[in-house]
Write the structure tokens for this entry.
Amino acid sequence: MASGDYYDVSAILAEETYVPARLVHGCTGVGTVIDPSSDSADLAPGTRLDLPLWMVPPMAGRNMLQVDLPVFYGNKMRRKMKAGAGCEDLRVRCPHYYSVATRLHAAMQACLTADEDFPAFILNTFRGRYKELLTKAPQVESSLEASQIQNKLSVEESQLFTAAAEAAAAYQRWKSNGDSRPMHRSQSLKRKWANEGGSGTAAGNENAAANAAS
Amino acid sequence: MFGKTGIELLQEVAQCPADSLPAFNEEAFRNVIDEVHLQHERLTSVYNESRERHRQRQVEAGEEPEEGGAGWRGTEAEASELMVYHSAILRNKRLLFAYVKERLDRIQELRWTHRTLPDHVKANLSPLELQYFRQYDKLLSRYMRSGAGGVGLDLTADPSPPDDPYVQVRVLRDYGEIVFTSGKVSLQRGKSHWLPKDEVHPLVMDGVLEVLAGNS
């Protein structure tokens, strides 16, 4: 599968997610490797097991596998999302919720087990959470609060959250002293500037520094 | 499961903060390559065995044994086994490539932000990576020099246009005496100075100085 994200670390990590699959013809030899619960090296046709997402598309495309939706995309989850998408903790269920969903759906279409409602469910979930995420991000006061929110977000949402918070912080900096691009070594969400007005003599500077340091 | 060592290797780099690197994990790298060799060996032997079996069957049935690659004649279960090996080999290849590339990207980034390798990073590079840095440094310096073939600009300097050529900075750690175009300054911790912005930029990147708010 030629993809522009061959070297992308997030994409690679997303494909480590395990999904439920059935071996159409079974397989010889590697049974104990791919199914830790198996005693023998050969697996019978129809064996159900969990496989990492990277192994799925090549085999599903050749009809050696039938792959199903994992529990975190199932009916119970859909009901929960309908009730309140923003409050669900996606990180604990599947950190790469959206990347896994797109790859899985493509593989399921290849082996004809696709659920037609699945894309709509994912889109609506994202829509609901995105709006909440964007409104919360500029209001965050501390990095503690930020990390509490981000602990419930998937990896993709977390990147959007960070971007939104940084944009809001840049706007605040611009409003207060006209310089929205600070020259500083590490990026942090909020940075309190010591506002010493204007230049001055060396004594003036040292006084200001002493005041700021105390 | 196949690819476990590979993904752990990649996570080792991914979890390290963006401006440093863990030591080049020779051992894990070689383990992944060994795993690939094993998988390849198993793959070819399963393939050859099933071709042999097919030829035997043909001979016993009195037919001419097929020559050359003529499509799969083994069982579907064996084909599934081959696909497992095949996708595992490609996965390991991808993991190793991503590992090396992630490290090289960071090394390159260090040339742009810090201009040299900090010591704690240098200690963690493999000899080939050190060579990469040296050659990249030479390449970039040659590109940026004034005179034949160069653009004559320091591209690694602060890219944002300044509102004010001078900026107020506070010294974060003792650094000794530095000559700026505005004069000689002794950088001692805690003192503030009024200095040219572009000359101050590399020291800010290294954490020696901290910019205070510009004037209104």
About this structure: The mean pLDDT of chain B is 86.
